[in-house]
Amino acid sequence: MESGRNFRVYVVYNKETMFPIMEQAHGSIMRSSHGFRPIQSLERGLRVLDLLMNGGSRLGVSELARTLGLSKAVVFRILRTLERHGYVVREEDRRYRLGTKPLELASAVLRQFEVRQVAWPTMLSLAERTGESVVLTAPGPDGVICLDTVDSPQQLRVSFRVGRVTPWHAGAAGKLHLAFLPQERTREILSRGLPRYTERTVTDPAVLLQELDRIRQQGYAFTIGELDPGVAAITAPIRDARGAVIAAISIGGPASRFTEERLPALIQEVLSAAEEISLRLLGGRWQPQGSAESVSE
Hints:
The protein is α+β, with helices and mostly antiparallel strands. It has two domains: about 25-105, Winged helix-like DNA-binding domain superfamily/Winged helix DNA-binding domain (Arc Repressor Mutant, subunit A); about 115-280, GAF domain (Beta-Lactamase), CATH 3.30.450. About 40% of the residues lie in helices and about 15% in strands. The protein has nine helices and ten strands. The chain is globular and about 60 Å long. About 30% of the residues are buried.
């Protein structure tokens, strides 16, 4: 198998379709709304990968061609090229699925987030202490990205997928990150509209802004059933040396376990975990509140 050339690609995606934002002009020439002229074959290949990622685990040439509006011959050549470089695998029934190369790319992206490695011990400890699932998130271009997770040890639990992008305005993690974004960015996000995911989703910008103020004042976010029905979550910010929020840690689980009696202790656990990770990012050693170290030799 021959090795291909190394290249870097920058693609702007539509948040609804996850397809690159492109406008067709002059027949086969594609031009984006940002003025650059992309490589058409590469753009088509990325769309194929998007479909395999979001549309189904195994798809055939005919299905892909029909969805993309391309000929089967073109789609077949795209798939063979992706297969050659490990991005897709052809099964015995002639359907295609994602190969291992996307996993390598995902791992490379995750390695860029130092906070993921620093946070891992704290995440394990938080899951053990609270009995709930723990999620590490960071702000992305179109929402909040799940960087890492630790599942609850309990049989009834909520699981989260690494790489999942959730909206800014629904759920504790999204609201926490939104509360600490620059005001211009917040206004731009609100101007896009606030889709409803459950009956508890906040879709009124004025109400949402009030909630964001409260989150900034109290230092954490707590929601029930705003993104997923019956799921409660608590999120606290992780800060860098300048005090900027660069990530957040959350616990999530069935709302029935987030009782009024238990809630204060859970909130404190999450706040302490966020503080611990922030300190470790600065190179310090975490010391739980109330403990003391001897300074004598």
